[in-house]
Write a structure and sequence with these properties.
This protein has about 250 residues and is mainly alpha-helical. Among the domains are: about 80 residues, no CATH class; about 60 residues; about 30 residues, no CATH class. Helices cover about 45% and strands about 5% of the residues. The chain has 8 helices and 3 strands. It has a 3-stranded mixed β-sheet with strand order 1-2-3. Helix 1 links the parallel strand 1 and strand 2. The radius of gyration is 27 Å and the shape is extended. The protein binds iron/sulfur cluster (SF4). Iron/sulfur cluster binds next to helix 3. InterPro entries: DUF2800.
Length: about 250
C-alpha cells in the first residue's frame, strides 16, 4: 500500500510502474516465505478521497520485469534511451531545465497561438490535452529563473525588482488597544467556515447541530479528459434536447 499525502494529482494504481516496483520489492522479501500467486497494490490518497486498487498475477509482474523494466533499466544505466515527457515531469528533479520538456511544450508553437476560431476542433482538442503541462512547465521556468536571479544570476534583458506589497500593522495588539481606546470596535465578526466550525464542535456535534443547514453547491464546470471518473455534467444543451424529446 502506498500512502500519498499530495492532493494535486489523483494517482491510480492501475498498471502503475511505481506500484509494480514496490510489489517487486515485496516479492523479493516475501516470495520465499509465502505462496504468492497474485499481488494487490493499493494507493491510499485521503486528501483526494481516493483508494485505488490494482491486482496482478505474479507471472504477469515478472513478464513486465523481463519485457519492459529490464530493457529500460539497461538503457538508462548505459546513459541511452529516450526522454519521455508526460504528467510525471512535474515530479522530476530536472523539470525546469530539461531540454526534452522544453521542446515538447514548444511544439505547441506550431499553432502560432492563434485564437480558437482560427483553429479546427481537432487543433483545439490537441492543445487542450497538453495545456496543463504547458502551464506547469511555464511556471517551473518562471520559478527557476527567479530563484537563480535571487541567487545572483543575471539573465540578459531581465532584472530583479521589488514586487507590489500591501501596508500592514507593525503590532496588531497595540492597534486593537488603540482603536478600542478611541471608542471603536477593531474586530470583524464572522461566522466560522465549515472546516473551522467542525474542528470547534467536533464532527458528531456538528452533524447534530448544523446538519440541516449545510448544502453542497454545484461545482464550477471543469473540462476534463473523458477518462476522468466523475460523471459528465448536464449542460443547458442536454436539458434542452431532453425537453424537446419529451414534447
Ligand atoms: S522533465 Fe525531462 S528528464 Fe524529467 S521526466 Fe520529463 S522528460 Fe524525463
Amino acid at each position: 500500500m502506498d500512502y500519498k499525502h499530495g492532493k494535486g494529482v489523483q494517482v491510480e494504481a492501475d498498471n502503475n510502474p511505481q506500484m509494480m516496483l514496490y510489489a517487486l520489492g515485496a516479492l523479493e522479501i516475501f516470495d520465499g516465505i509465502y505462496d504468492i500467486d497474485s499481488l494487490s497494490m493499493i494507493i491510499y490518497q485521503p486528501r483526494r478521497s481516493n483508494v485505488s486498487t490494482f491486482t496482478m498475477a505474479k507471472v504477469d509482474l515478472y513478464q513486465w520485469v523481463e519485457e519492459t523494466l529490464k530493457p529500460a533499466a539497461e538503457l538508462s544505466y548505459a546513459g541511452e534511451g529516450d526522454f519521455k515527457c508526460g504528467d510525471w515531469c512535474q515530479f522530476c528533479k530536472v523539470k525546469q531545465d530539461c531540454r526534452k520538456r522544453a521542446e515538447y511544450n514548444m511544439e505547441l508553437a506550431k499553432f502560432d497561438f492563434q485564437l480558437p476560431p482560427l483553429l479546427t476542433d481537432e487543433d483545439v482538442e490537441e492543445i487542450l490535452g497538453r495545456i496543463d503541462g504547458l502551464v506547469s512547465w511555464a511556471n517551473d521556468i518562471k520559478e527557476y529563473t527567479l530563484q537563480a536571479a535571487v541567487g545572483g544570476k543575471e539573465w540578459h534583458g531581465w532584472k530583479l525588482v521589488e514586487g507590489r506589497s500591501n501596508r500592514k500593522y507593525t503590532d496588531e495588539n497595540v492597534v486593537a488597544a488603540t482603536v478600542t481606546a478611541a471608542g471603536f470596535d477593531p474586530y470583524e465578526h464572522k461566522v466560522l467556515g465549515v472546516t473551522a466550525m467542525t474542528s470547534l464542535l467536533g464532527k458528531k456535534r456538528f452533524e447534530e447541530v448544523l446538519g440541516g443547514y449545510i448544502e453542497k453547491p454545484q461545482g464550477k464546470p471543469t473540462l476534463v479528459p473523458e477518462s476522468d471518473k466523475r460523471p459528465a455534467m448536464n449542460t443547458a444543451k442536454n436539458d434542452f434536447n431532453e425537453f424537446e424529446e419529451d414534447k
